């Protein structure tokens, strides 16, 4: 299964399809084929692996795959049927497919007499597929909210100046995270105040190979000469303050990873709406004081309403700290 997970890393990390890897073993447990999914419209991992075998070469074999084989017709056929037709005797998978249309592969395989084992290295596969699973289970993109602040939580000085709170290493990590995202989201307030380009750039200021699509949320007009209009991708304007409408539209457009990099107003709105899957927090060893906080009102009027986080990683980037954290579900959410 770990080999299958390594193979899955070869697939595209963004877009609507999951990264899936497959290893086929003969009756003696020897690897006879490997495959992975290369993106929408291409063979799924199981079919990719089967295609390297001669006719009948998979009869009696075991297919080890990171995600439950699909059971539907999309741009390609169902993997469950391909495995049955190939004569595979056993299928081992890590994570069940949560898709409303694509799930059911394990049941179909069992109906055909194929032995099926699920949940192998499920935790590792869940982490690997985290953003795609969010989209599949919740019907919206995986949303990361990022901010950079001083240790006392200030994102700007009292006069509004905010450039270079963190150092070069932290800023470069942000650009790498932008590149790994399908879309970068800001509010009209950030566009009007900072005129950001919303591009992903390298150390020398060059554009990185992959660029997130810029998304601007809000109803205020943006100047026609704003830097966002010079982005390699056309800007998407979401002329609403209803974030549920925004994320539904981004999901409909096929975005899987969304990086929210707006100011405190937008970040607070995402937190208050319960639409944050991950936080990317950059802390500079400095103090500013004053009113310019990273978050405003998030609906926590009493200590019992606090939004608790679980810190996944802490990393030093030059003199700065990078914290990666996820929300801790409340008992109501868990239910």
Can you give a write-up of this model?
The chain has 335 residues and is an alpha/beta fold. It has two domains: 2-129, Cytidine Deaminase, domain 2 (3-Layer(aba) Sandwich), CATH 3.40.140; 140-334, 3-Layer(aba) Sandwich (Dihydrofolate Reductase, subunit A), CATH 3.40.430. Helices cover 26% and strands 23% of the residues. It is built from eleven helices and 13 strands. The chain has helices spanning 2-8, 45-50, 79-86, 105-111, 122-128, 130-138, 168-179, 188-194, 243-252, 264-272, 331-334, and strands at residues 21-25, 31-36, 62-67, 90-95, 115-117, 142-150, 183-187, 213-217, 236-238, 257-260, 278-284, 309-317, 320-327. The protein has an eight-stranded mixed beta sheet with strand order 9-8-7-10-6-11-13-12, sandwiched between helices. A five-stranded mixed beta sheet has the order 2-1-3-4-5. β4, α4 and β5 form a beta-alpha-beta unit. α3 runs parallel beside α4. The longest helix is centred in the middle third of the chain and has 12 residues, at 168-179. It is elongated and about 70 Å long. The relative contact order is 0.12. The mean pLDDT is 93. In the N-terminal section; belongs to the cytidine and deoxycytidylate deaminase family. In the C-terminal section; belongs to the HTP reductase family. Its cofactor is Zn(2+).
């Amino acid at each position: 299964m770990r080999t299958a997970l390594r193979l899955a890393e070869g697939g595209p990390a963004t877009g609507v399809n999951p990264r899936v890897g497959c290893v086929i073993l003969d009756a003696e447990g020897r690897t006879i084929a490997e495959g992975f999914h290369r993106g929408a419209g291409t063979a799924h991992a199981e079919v990719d692996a089967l295609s390297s075998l001669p006719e009948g070469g998979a009869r009696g074999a075991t297919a080890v795959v990171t995600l439950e084989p699909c059971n539907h017709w999309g741009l390609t056929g169902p993997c469950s049927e391909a495995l049955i037709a190939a004569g595979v005797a056993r299928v081992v998978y890590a994570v069940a497919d949560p898709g409303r249309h694509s799930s059911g592969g394990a049941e179909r395989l069992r109906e055909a007499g194929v032995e099926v084992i699920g949940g192998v290295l499920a935790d590792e596969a869940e982490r690997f597929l985290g953003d795609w699973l969010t989209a599949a289970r919740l019907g919206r993109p995986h949303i990361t909210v990022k901010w950079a602040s001083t240790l006392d939580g200030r994102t700007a000085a009292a006069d509004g100046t905010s450039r270079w709170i963190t150092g070069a290493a932290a800023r470069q990590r942000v650009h790498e995270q932008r590149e790994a995202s399908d879309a970068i989201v800001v509010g009209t307030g950030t566009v009007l105040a900072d005129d950001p380009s919303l591009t992903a750039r390298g150390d020398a200021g060059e554009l990185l190979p992959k660029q997130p699509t810029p998304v601007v949320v809000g109803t205020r007009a943006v100047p026609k000469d704003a830097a966002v209009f010079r982005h390699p991708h056309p800007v998407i304007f979401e002329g609403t303050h209803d974030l549920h409408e925004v994320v539904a539209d981004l999901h409909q457009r096929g975005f899987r990873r969304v990086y929210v990099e707006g100011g405190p107003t937008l970040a607070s709105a995402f937190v208050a709406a319960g639409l944050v899957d991950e936080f990317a927090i950059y802390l500079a060893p400095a103090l500013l004081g004053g009113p310019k906080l990273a978050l405003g009102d998030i609906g926590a009027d009493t200590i019992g309403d606090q939004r608790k986080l679980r810190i996944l990683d802490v990393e030093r980037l030059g003199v700065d700290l990078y914290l990666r954290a996820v929300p801790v579900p409340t008992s109501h959410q868990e239910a």
